[in-house]
Amino acid sequence: MGNCNTCNKIILMYALIDCNNFYASCERLFQPHLNQKPVVILSNNDGCVIARSNEAKAFVPMGAPAFKFKNIFKEKKVHVFSSNFALYGDISARIMQIISKYSLDFEPYSIDEAFIKINTNKYTDLESIIIKLKKEIERGVGVPISIGIAPTKSLSKVANRISKKYPKRTQGIYLIDDEQKRIKSLKWLQINDIWGIGKRHSKRLKGYGINNAFEFCSQNNKWVKNKFSIVELKLKQDLCGIPTIKLEEVKRKKSISCTRSFDRSYSNCEQIKERIASFSINCAEKLRLQNSKCNAMIVFLQTNRHKENDNQYSKSIFIQSPFPTNSSIEISKLAINGFMRIFKKGYQYKKAGVIITNFTPENQEQLTLFENSNPKHKNLMKTMDYINHSLGDQKIKLASQDLKKTWKMKQEKLSRRYSTKLNEVIVVNV
């Protein structure tokens, strides 16, 4: 791995640790009989395919509607699971905890990916660190991972992609540590596979005769900036081996959403209104956890686009709050008012959601002359959160919610929450 073992120069490298087929791997952790068998994971309410094992990728496309592939699942003996985010989230937290031990410069990028920055003066030290990290995750947690290492963040993405593409050759670890490897890797990577290049930009680049990452990096800086933007220029420089894209600190979310596909279609206004209230309250609770207040929200409704014979309707509305708030009472009231403005009778609604945005820190509120958040709500929300977090299952609800019914997603193929629910742990009979 490189030829700098004898020099004292500090080597700065980025590593991207990515879990292989993460959701499917989580299901296999506690069900080893699923190894080497096709596995797919369905979205909320068992709607469409959101994750696949390698064995399933040959005959089940990403995003495939589950109801259209029932025969394929049966024919190919595909093991189908509902999304078990309690399990996936817990496994992710365990992996991230291990990764964070290996570097102070650590960026969780998604539920199954994280970047770290490593400083060392020997490539042999770098090799031992990465191998140790990989073994600790795979032995300690059990999820297979791939690691890409390179002098820049975007190149580590490229290296990771190679490690996944050629697992036998790379043993799940690939290092771009010289110019020859960098150029070879960029010539291999197609333009639409570059991290940060979307469909629209890749189509434009292909129109200019640019088909891979190397051809993109060969363009003049001024041309890239003029034709696209400073973002694409920074990406190009990073791919050229000049560290331009930095690790990001874990920041407060800029928006919080709660959107759901219903277990069935609903036309009743009161039933959907209750869902909107619950979604907005869920958002408000998350908002309080990060000590923020919101100033605006979006509410939307949508019919079932897969039922082409049904009348279709899709509508959203932007609502500006007269004052910053994180009160469930105030946020749900705004959301319900927005819902009533966009709801239309005569349609079968399959999905709805609430997105809160435009945040300000809770301790930096500026009072207005005429309207402000009710100060009594602060202690009330604190008490509600404490009780609900302690007892679970939303013991305290607002009157706008159904007090008797806890709405649940359609999860007909849900696996057990092996690592988070005491009554669902594995029992070993000796």
Describe the structure concisely for a colleague.
The protein has 430 residues and is α+β, with helices and mostly antiparallel strands. The chain has helices at 22-29, 70-75, 85-100, 123-140, 153-165, 167-170, 179-188, 199-207, 213-217, 221-227, 230-239, 269-289, 328-342, 376-391, and strands at residues 11-19, 39-42, 49-52, 79-82, 106-110, 113-120, 145-150, 173-175, 255-266, 292-303, 314-325, 349-361.
What are the SSEs and their pairings?
Elements: E1 11-19, H1 22-29, E2 39-42, E3 49-52, H2 70-75, E4 79-82, H3 85-100, E5 106-110, E6 113-120, H4 123-140, E7 145-150, H5 153-165, H6 167-170, E8 173-175, H7 179-188, H8 199-207, H9 213-217, H10 221-227, H11 230-239, E9 255-266, H12 269-289, E10 292-303, E11 314-325, H13 328-342, E12 349-361, H14 376-391
Structure notes:
The chain is an alpha+beta fold and 430 residues long. It has three domains: 177 residues, 2-Layer Sandwich (Alpha-Beta Plaits), CATH 3.30.70; 73 residues, Orthogonal Bundle (DNA polymerase, domain 1), CATH 1.10.150; 137 residues, Dna Ligase, domain 1 (2-Layer Sandwich). Helices cover 37% and strands 21% of the residues. The protein is built from 14 helices and twelve strands. The strands form three sheets. Strands 5-6-1-7-8 form a five-stranded mixed beta sheet. A hairpin with a 2-residue loop joins strand 5 and strand 6. The chain is globular and about 65 Å long. The relative contact order is 0.11.
